[in-house]
Amino acid sequence: MSRTTAIIVLSSLLTANVVMHTMAQRSGVFEQLDLLVDVRHELVTEYVEVPDEKKLIDAAARAMVAAVGDPYTVYLSPEEMPDFDKQVRGTFSGIGAEIDIHENFLRIAAPLEDSPAWKAGILAGDIVLEIEGKTTEGITTAEAIKRLVGEEGTPVKLKVRHLDGKVADISVVRAKIVVPTVKGWVRKDDNHWDYMLDPVNKIGLVRVTQFTEDTAPKLKAALTELQAAGMKGLVLDLRFDPGGLLESAVQVCDMFLDGGKTIVSIRGRTQRDRTFESKTEAEDIKNIPLVVLVNEASASASEIVSGALKDNGRAIVIGTRTFGKGSVQQVKMIEANGGAIKITNALYYLPSGRNIHRKEGDKLWGVDPSDGFYVPMTSEETVAMLKVWRDLNVKPPAKGELTPQWIQKERSDPQLAAALEAMLGKLKTGEWPKTGKEGGDILSRQAEIERLGKMRAELTERLEELNNKIGTLEKGEKLPEPEKKDEPK
Fold first, then answer.
1. Is 311 assigned a catalytic role?
2. In degrees to the nearest 10, what's the CA dihedral of 456, 461, 463, 468?
C-alpha cells in the first residue's frame, strides 16, 4: 500500500468515526426525547383524570431550564410575556427591587434607593418567604414580578427573613418607580445634591444607584461641578447598586481610565469573545485620587466598574466582597408557542481574568476590597446606616468639623468613615493608609459562616418549637392559646 493510499484510508476511517460518533450522539438525544414522549403518552392515556396537556408541556419546559441550575436562565410562557418587560424597577408601579432566586426561594438582590421597598426596610439579601401569605418556594422570577407589580398605591404584604435570620412581616405600598441614578451625600437647602463631602479638604462623594442611559452624563455633570469647586479627591459610592447597562458601565470607566485600558471581557461558549477598552485621552479627573465603595449588594455593572478601576490600579476599593452577578442574558423567542427563554450565554471577566459571576461551590467571585481595606458591617449596622440615609433632615457638621469619627457616629457608616480616613491620608502623605482589615477573602468567608450560623440557630429554635408542639399534641393535650396583643391606641 502506497503512502498516499494509506493516508486516504486513514482519513476515511477518521471521517467514518466522526460520522458514527455524531450519529450516536443524535441517537442518544432522540432516545432521551422519546422518554418525554412516552411519559406524556402514559399520563394522557392512563392517568385517572384527563390531564391538562398544555400544563404538562409547560412544566417539562420549566424543568428542563431549571436543570441547568442558573437562576438567571428562565422560561417564559406566552402568558408571562406581557409582564416580562415589567422588571421590578423602572417607571411603573411596583416595589422597586432587583430580585433573583436563591435556594429555591425569592431573594432581594438589592432594593432600589428611595423605592417603596427601600423605605419599608427591605434589605439586600433578604429572602422573601411569602407574598400575600403564599410561599415563594419554587417561584419563578416572572411569577414573582407578576405578584409584586400592581396598581399604584396598593399594598403588598411580604414575609422576609433578614441576613441575621430574623423573620419580619413587611407591608410595601406600590408606587411609580423613578429612581435618580446619581446622588450626593446630603441635600442642600435648595434640595440640590451636595457632592462635596469635605469642603475643607476638597473631597467629593458621588453615589451611583443604577447604571442607566443617563448615568454617565449625570455623573459627568456632578464631576464638573466638583472640579469647579476645586476637588482634590473623590469617593465613588457603588454600594447597593444592582447594576444596569454594560454600555453605561463602560462609559463611567472611560471617565477615569487612560485610553487603551481593559475594562471588561465577555466570554461565552457560542458567542464571540469581546473585550471593552477605555478610549478617551487623559483628563484632569484621571489624576485625582479615587476610592470606590462597594458591598455585598453591589452587582453587575457596579462590579464591572469597581473591578476595572481596581485591576488597572486607578482606585482602591473599600467595603466587602460584591454580589457576584456577572452573567449576560439574551432573550430567545420560541416560535412554537410564542414564549421565550431568557438564557445566560456569556460571563463577564475582569481585566485580571477573574470571573465576576458567582456559582455554587466557587471560592472566588465578584470584586474583593483592596488588601487592608476590608470593612464589614453587621446587619444591625447596615439597618442603622440606611435609617440615616432615609432621613433627609440629617445635616452635615459645621464647616471644618467633618471627620471619620463624625461619620461613624452621626451617619452610622464605618465604610464611608474608612474611605474618608484613607483619602485624608493619601492627600497628606501621598500614600494610602490601610483603614480596614487584611485578608478580605478569608474574612468574607468568615462573615458568611457567621451569617449562616445565625440562620441555623434561628431554624434550630423554630424546629425545637415545632417538635414541642407535636409532642404536646401526641400526648393528647391542647396547645396553649397564643398571647393576645394589645390593640394599638
1. yes
2. 160
C-alpha cell at 158: 411580604
By the 8 A CB rule, do 421 and 404 touch?
yes
pLDDT in tens, 460-483: 887 888 888 888 888 888 887 755
Residue owning grid cell 500500500? 1
pLDDT at residue number 206: 97
Strand, coil or helix: 359: coil
| CATH, domain range 182-438 | 3.90.226.10
Is position 2 annotated as part of the catalytic site?
A: no
**Contact between residue 71 and residue 101 where contact means Cβ atoms under 8 Å apart:** yes
The answer to whether 300 is a known catalytic residue is yes
Query: How far apart, in whole angstroms, are the C-alpha atoms of residue 415 and residue 56?
Result: 51
Q: pLDDT tens, 41-67?
A: 999 999 999 999 989 988 998 899 989
Q: Which of 311, 370, 412, 413 is catalytic?
A: 311
Determine contact, residues 161/167, Cβ cutoff 8 Å.
Answer: yes
Catalytic residue among 300, 327, 370, 412: 300
CATH number of 81-176: 2.30.42.10
Report the relative pairing of strands 316-319 and 290-294 from DSSP bridges. Answer: parallel
pLDDT bracket for residue 123 (50, 70, 90): confident
**Which residue among the candidates 325, 327, 413, 444 is catalytic per the annotation?**
325
Helices 301-311, 246-256: inter-axial angle, 10-degree rounding:
30
Domain ranges of the chain: 35-67, 81-176, 182-438, 444-473
CB neighbour class for 363 (10 Å; exposed up to 12, middle 13-18, buried from 19): exposed
